UniProtKB/TrEMBL annotation:
The lineage of its organism: Bacteria, Pseudomonadati, Pseudomonadota, Betaproteobacteria, Burkholderiales. SUPFAM superfamilies: beta-lactamase/transpeptidase-like. It comes from the Bacteria. Residues 28-331 form the Beta-lactamase-related domain. This is Beta-lactamase family protein. InterPro entries: Beta-lactam-related, Beta-lactam/transpept-like, Diverse_Enzym_Activities.
Length: 357
């Protein structure tokens, strides 16, 4: 697949960028097509947030064989779905519809764990910070199980996010996709984002590719999955990042909770040589990994499905951020080159380099 002759295609109208953004865009236009070809990545879609606003968005490569990617191309967000789900839950908390620390079994109890008394300990806070004790995904034969005491230890779990979404549905009496539209997508004008497959996806999908650059079958959700398979554009996700930076839709108290490290991950992330580039404190918050450097705090998340890699971050201090969506198992290789060309935080870049090495 030849990518070097494909330039960025902008399907959305944008104002003339300031000089710095124009220079960064020119650098991306020059370098990214070659990097995609070098690493067998079919395409990448990028959004940059500066001072709380989306200031740059572009797409490079091909969404499918012979079809150029544009900013209107839809990507599987993979686990970047989770921060959106967390934000919906936090907006419900801010409106007084649910509480962060209420037992979820009053409104939702998965039959698989009904006989385990520890279900009474499960709360939205524990679900959003990956402390439910659930596995990442339930076993196909044994169903859902609580593997460890809830609230004690961090353990990444998509099932925890699915659980809190079902709880929100049952307590509110509304389908979770309706809640998403009411509390997040419509307020942020995110018109190109959906938890489940829609007719308007047709002809717009970034087809996933394996490490050899070979196409693999895209995955879709017929009904919402609160932890995975949301489809979006980099621009739409950039609008979400801007909303998070503005604490839009959150009460001051809930916004403060979202910015707190709920569980430290220094032992997992910063041992041995990795400690050289780590911040003084790091862990997981409510929907995001939090990196607390000396002079700045960043929130980040990644996503990985078959043939998909996605990345997003925001800097609470500078109010900057970026979204990088790819349709490739090799997509992680393009993250640092893009962030370097967007002049991201030196401390953050140093941390990411350390984690990759």
């Amino acid at each position: 697949m030849l990518l070097s002759n494909l330039a960025a295609s902008l399907a959305l109208a944008a104002p003339t960028p300031p000089a710095e953004e124009a220079e960064q865009q020119a650098q991306l236009d020059q370098d990214i097509p070659q990097l995609l070809e070098q690493d067998a990545i079919p395409s990448v879609s990028i959004a940059q947030i500066r001072n709380g606003k989306v200031v740059l968005f572009a797409a490079y490569g091909e969404q499918s064989d012979g079809v150029p990617a544009t900013p209107a191309t839809l990507y599987n967000a993979a686990s970047l779905t989770k921060p959106l789900t967390a934000e919906i839950i936090l907006r419900l908390v801010s409106k007084g519809e649910i509480e962060l620390d209420e037992p979820m079994d009053r409104y939702w109890l998965d039959p698989d764990i009904a006989a385990d008394p520890r279900h009474a300990l499960l709360t939205p806070r524990l679900a959003l910070s990956h402390r439910t004790g659930f596995p990442n995904w339930r076993d196909g034969k044994e169903g859902l199980r609580i593997l460890r005491q809830p609230g004690v230890k961090w353990g990444y779990s998509g099932e925890g996010y699915r659980y809190v979404a079902h709880f929100a549905e049952n307590k509110s009496g509304q389908d979770f996709e309706e809640l998403a539209q009411t509390y997040l997508f419509k307020p942020l004008a995110m018109t190109e984002t959906s938890y489940s497959s829609k007719d308007w996806f047709k002809g717009r999908i970034a087809v996933p590719a394996n490490a050899a650059g070979e196409a693999v079958q895209p995955q879709f959700a017929s009904r919402f999955n609160a932890a995975d398979l949301l489809y979006t554009t980099a621009y739409d996700y950039g609008l979400f990042i801007a909303g998070v930076l503005a604490d839009q839709g959150l009460s001051p108290a809930v916004a403060r909770e979202r910015g707190k490290i709920q569980v430290s991950m220094m032992d997992e992330m910063c041992q041995g040589k990795l400690a050289e580039s780590c911040p003084p404190n790091a862990g997981f918050g409510l929907g995001w990994q939090i990196l607390a450097f000396k002079d700045e705090t960043l929130l980040m998340h990644t996503g990985k499905d078959e043939g998909v890699f996605t990345f997003a971050y925001l800097n609470r201090t500078s109010r900057d951020g970026a979204v990088i969506l790819t349709n490739s198992d090799n997509g992680y290789k393009i993250v640092l080159p893009v962030l370097e060309r967007l002049n991201s935080s030196p401390a953050f870049l140093r941390y990411l380099r350390g984690q990759i090495q």
